[in-house]
Design brief:
Layout (H helix, E strand, L loop, with lengths): L15 H32 L16 H30 L6 E8 L2 E6 L4 E3 L1 E5 L3 E8 L4 E5 L4 E5 L5 E6 L4 E7 L11 E7 L1 H9 L7 H11 L24 E3 L5 E3 L2 H9 L22 H13 L26
Helix pairs in contact: 1-2, 4-6, 5-6
The structure holds dinuclear copper ion.
Dinuclear copper ion (CUA) binds next to loops.
Amino acid sequence: MGSGFSLFPEQASTIASRVDNLFLFIVAVTAFFAVLVSVLVIWFAAKYHTEDPLAVGESIHGSIPLELAWSIIPFLISIVIFAWAADVYFDLQRPPDQALEIYATAKRWMWKFQHLDGQNEINELHVPAGRPVKVTFTSEDVLHSMFFPSFRVKADAIPGRYSTVWFTATKLGEYHLFCAEYCGTKHSGMIGKVVVMEPAEYQAWLAGGLGAGSLSQRGEQLFSDLACNTCHRSDDSGRGPSLVNKFGAPQELANGTSVAVNEAYIRESILTPQAKLVAGYQPLMPTFQGLLSEESVMALVEYVKSLRTTSGGEPRSAAEPGVTPPATPQKK
Ligand code: CUA
């Protein structure tokens, strides 16, 4: 957050310079044509000006080379912009697999961030430099928009839906976080900061938390408190499908289609279980709509994501998944 006036916020992420270069290219192209057209208008007005009130201009019946030129040249320029923008956009939309995951909720008028290790923070986000960070978030009330100007990333927070932004911070320091969608009287106060730290420093900061348990441990606790584990066992013996190794894989549905198991699908299946019913199971699960905060849903999502038996990377939950036998099976 340097002092003095600058046209652009500091470039503090890997994508920032690419977004700026594309933006500057589009500005340059449009400025060039704006100047060209303005100059020609003025020049021709002066050149063909006449004092004779009865003068009639020469009639022109078209020119094939001219028409081809003003069709093909803009076409080629717009194709260049399209291809270039698609390249940047795809990278903006696709977080790398090994990204550090952070959850967030927006509400009037604050941002609440949840780190997987259990740390919570409000209107402040601590991240390590040099590592991709993916923030998955939703809104608890109205539309907001998470905007990190120095990272050149922004996405709307939409009630009932998960959005993501990702970035790799390249410079240590503090940067702005804004709400970029008008959300009520204190919209302008819905601001925060992101603190980019050395990775070791970040680890130390995480360890200095309250020790409330990791997000997936909180999810595991909820999973048994809500008696989810009575139906979702670690094998397929329960009334509901096993959730082990489900995340990231395609899932066959009762209606014959299939769905990618991502955060949004897990959230939907908790809140409206019948929306996309898994093939081979009865619609027995009750809805948890209105019973769980978005933060609790995120903890459950993170727990389901942690249920992995194979060693495709470091295991994120040490606990044996969902095998606690229920004391009293719940009636559905
Ligand atoms: Cu939240 Cu504007």
